[in-house]
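Notes for week 9. Today we move from apo structures to complexes. The key idea is that a small molecule is not decoration. When we ask for a structure prediction with S-adenosylmethionine present, the ligand SMILES becomes part of the input, just like the chain. The input block below holds both the sequence and the ligand string. Read it once before you look at the output, and try to guess where the molecule might sit.
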Amino acid sequence: MFCSVGLSFLGLVVLTSFLWAPLLILNLPFILLGLLVLRVTGLSHRLLLVYYAIYDFMFYRSEFLRKTLWQVMYDLMVYLYPQCKWRCMNYGYASLTPDGKTLDLSLVDEYERFPLQMYMTAASCQGAFTSWADKTVVEVGSGRGGGLEYIHRTMKPSSSYGVDYSDNQVEFCKQSYGEIEGLAYAQGDSEKLDQVKMLEGVKADLIFNVESSHCYGNFDAFVAQVSKMLKQGGQFSMTDFRADTDLPAFETSLLSHGMVPVMSNPLETSEEDGHHPQCDPGLEAGRAAEDLSDR
Ligand SMILES: C[S@@+](CC[C@H](N)C(=O)[O-])C[C@H]1O[C@@H](n2cnc3c(N)ncnc32)[C@H](O)[C@@H]1O
């Protein structure tokens, strides 16, 4: 699929070259002169800053635009990379040991060791479940579904639900894991979980969220939904990246919806040995406040 899209694009470029090539050659001196002026006057640096500001706004600050752009990107990624071997899309987690391994994995899972280690860290970091047998877990932003499938297969909760905004990815999950008992995926918006049919009546023991929340238009609306769906005393665990300046709003959001932080590990390394705290970079774990009455 990827090859055919690439080849079609190349074909189009070659076929239309009689249109753009002469224009490019004629204008090349002006383009080069313009670039030189930008460089000498220092304007290129300013333009770069404007570019960064626009990029930051589009992908990390806007509401509607950010949501739509990420959705289009993830839909497109499944289209371009339909291989079912690729199941996770996070940066991965490694312990600071020579091999970084925290899990014993089968050969198949070894292929995505570090993203799966991230999943296990996020899903079980609080270590509060002695048994998962009767637990209901929900992943918001489940992506290509492999992380949730791994948690479901190894921890064996009674039910696991994955929700993702990208239709194509959810379709991919249904095709890849649709037969597995107790595991289900549905399309839905993190900010409107109460409108996801699959989750009707679901009260979760654990809701987790792996490197997805930076795509949401309104993080606070997401936390409000999580808070509603958690059982009393249930857990919310998430890992993602944030600019330092955004951390206060991030923390306020969690606290204002009744999350009692039980652990928070910003990505830090100690000066002595380059070792960071026992758990996940940027992991926030919260436990729903016992006295929230709307559960
Ligand atoms: C970096 S990927 C991480 C996927 C998965 N958690 C993993 O680690 O493999 C971010 C995911 O968040 C999903 N996402 C983005 N905005 C969302 C939203 N508003 N509601 C639900 N999922 C969303 C994307 O479609 C994408 O699958």
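Residues 268-283, 289-295 have pLDDT under 50 and may be disordered.
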